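Minutes, project check-in
Item: structure for the 559-residue chain
Input as provided by the requester:
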Amino acid sequence: MEKMVGRVLGTRDSTPLEFWVGVGDGEFIQLDDVVALERVLPTGELVRMYGSVGQVIARHEGARFDSDVFLIEDGILPAEVSEAAQVTATRFEPEVFVPPRPGQPVRIAEDEERERALFFDQMERRFPVGVTRNGDPLWVNFEFLNGERGAHVNISGISGVATKTSYATFLLHSLFTSGVLGTASVNTKALIFNVKGEDLLHLDRVNSRLTDDERRRYADLGLPSTPFESVGLYAPPRIDDPKATADVASRSDVTSFFWTVHDFCADDLLPFLFADAEDDRAQYTTVVYNVMAQLRQSEASDTGAANIDGAKLRTFRELVDFITERVQSDDHAIRSRWAGPAIGTGTINAFVRRLQASVRHIGRLVRSDVGDIDRHRVKLEDHQVTVVDLHNLNDRAKRFVVGVTLKRAFDDKERAGQSDELLMVVLDELNKYAPKEGTSPIKEVLLDIAERGRSLGVILVGAQQTASEVERRIIANSSIRVVGRLDSAEASREEYGFLPSVHRQRATIVKPGTMILSQPELPVPLVLEFPFPAWATRASEAVRPMGDSAQPEDPFEDL
């Protein structure tokens, strides 16, 4: 027989959506507990009710003034301590929405009852996303991630405290190892952009700080406590390095990536140089697209150089100087063909200034002066997880790499058509690439993924410190929303309206490793913890294989 922990209160209103439970002597109810009870209707029908505890209060019954607490504790005034829990209803079986009656016994829902209360029993395809504080697994319906009924994940939280990236990689690990992907797991891929430090360049290495207790937490979720097995690592080449060595300090087996000059011309990459342009961008947009049309006619050489109008262009500097000469040509016919007819000198000069300023940051990313160019292409098909490192690039170069890489990946999926094989895209600092205000080529690509990606199997796992600064349509198209530690001012924003007020307050104090997750099937958010990463999250945690020739670690990395 189930153990009763309390009864429905008669001193507070009970509704089908919310009611209060008085806690019995010697019992306790805590936040996030799941409770169950029954009511027999006058027709004789039994209605089972389930709910989640959102608030717990304790008070002295009989006290009138704040100072009465001292008299009560000294035995001078009579009073009783009472505890009550506020319960938000989650499920009715059958769906007869009646309030519980005062005095009805309430019990903690466990095992099968807990599964029913949180709709876990109706999730035909589910994967674990964390555990409760008492170790019970929590699940997400895969149909709200793979595009069948919804897609995309959005994670918000303070940098360095909310563990956004750690949780995003845990979700990937759970997807790849839980079996929920079925036969599609072979060709389901993940593309991760590494934006800070070299933290994500060690996903394939064991975390030396993983304890036996954490390994047991993985086992409780049915997951292996192992690093990612198939990882491809790419980083930009070092500046002015003729060998195009990857600009990475913590390991030596990272492949440098860049685009050839012909790639830049033929694949229409020019607009991504202006991805952060806000000032007077509309005035030289015409120049950008006229130049792009001319570059599209280039022919490729064996080394990836671009042949345009008889000129062979091997470096980005040569290409930029060539474009500058064409759009500022004294020959009116040439200038009109490249810049466009009736384009003023001021507009052309504004375009040229921005184009010339990009050489310093983009030069190492667009080049045809290195052999074996195919080796330096980012190839998602070669590994299950592909990490593209951006941390050594300035913001403009980051935008270029993110925009170009996403565009190519999305175009490839679009050509392949609808498929059960997913491409998971993990992108932190989403507010930089898809801000609420303004437009840019990168923002358009991200909006395309958010609005059409689910039909093609492109799933965005976006993260940011402040959801209030991200394009609203991207947030709105995310079926699964996750919140870590939030700033109190940010927590009050309307973007977090999916969180009850109590959960907004809790989000300002949760510790690292605790997240609040909302999914469409559940009327209440889930407060969860997730295991410590089984993969290294920085160089100092990595257990290196024998013979690794990586450069020595920075002894001040963790300071």
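Outcome recorded: Confidence is low (pLDDT under 50) at residues 549-559.
No further action items on this chain.
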